[in-house]
Each structure stands twice: as structure tokens, then as C-alpha cells.
Amino acid sequence: MVQAVIVVLGAAQIGLFYAAHRAVTAAKRRGKWYEGTRQATAADTTLRTDPERVPWRLLIPPVLLLLITAAVGSTRYAALPETLATLRGWGVDAVTRVPTTPATAFAPVLSQLALTLLTPLLVAALLRARPDLDAAHPPKGRPAATASTCAACPASCWPAWPARTSPCCSSPCRCGRPCRPARS
Predict the structure, then answer these.
(1) pTM higher than 0.70
(2) What is the pLDDT of residue 124?
């Protein structure tokens, strides 16, 4: 029963979204929102042309915390009981106990060490990663501009574009590519 209600509500949401989309698109077309304007896409490529430096100074607080935790653990290790409570997620399972060994006693320090090492390495790798697409060198065999970015297409035809089946204006696009069709 609950699943049927979820399916009905999902279908209703999709139907209402589509109806609202059509209404907004029609209003934009009637109001000539895009008349006299040229739509374009802008991209900030400074991440590749002037990449950010890895903020290595931000490692000082976690390394200090790691060293302080290890120092406190080292001074208190001799006074620990023969068994320790087991660490489970965010808390401690007091029922399940494990023998006191350096590995179990320093488990929080080892977790801190792993995170302190892996997080900055991941940041450094991501900042230096090669992009899949480079705006300066587009893939070969594809045109640099498509009909959706053509300046010669009338702006009033841009809000709605179901398929490229008929020209959206009386004359073909000056770039030689098919125009977006207008909705009837």
C-alpha cells in the first residue's frame, strides 16, 4: 500500500513538474524574454591556468593534535587496565573488551594518523589532477560551436528545443548548422 502511494505521488510530482516547465517556457516565449539577447556560457578556467597551491600550512593544527594525543597516550599507557573497551563507530562498546596492546591502546592515534596523511594527499592529488576536458584544447572531430551556441539563430527560438527537425526561422542559420525548431 505504501509503495503504491509513493509511486502515485512520484508520478504526480513528475506530471506537475512537466506542466510547470511547459507553462514557464510558454510564458517566456510569449513575453519574448530572450529577444535581442545572445545566450552564452561562461566558464572559469583559472583553476587550470593558475592552479591553487596546496595549503600545507593547514597541516600544522592536525599534526600538533596528533603529537599531543600520542604523547598523552604514551604517558598513560603503563596505567591502562589489562582490557580495554572496544571502539565502535562514534562511541565505545563497554561490554566487548579487548586485551591492552599497543595497537588497541593507540587505535585512535592510528586513525588520526591515517586521516592526517590521507586528507592532504587527496587534496594535493585533486589540485594537480589533469582535467578530462580542457577548454583550450577541445577534442578533435567535434565542432567548437553547436546550434545551441550559434549567435545567428534568433534568440526567440532558444527557450524551447524539442528536436532538430525543422528550421526555427524562415532562413537557415548563417553558420550552416540547422537552427533549433520552434514549437507549434
Answers:
(1) no
(2) 87
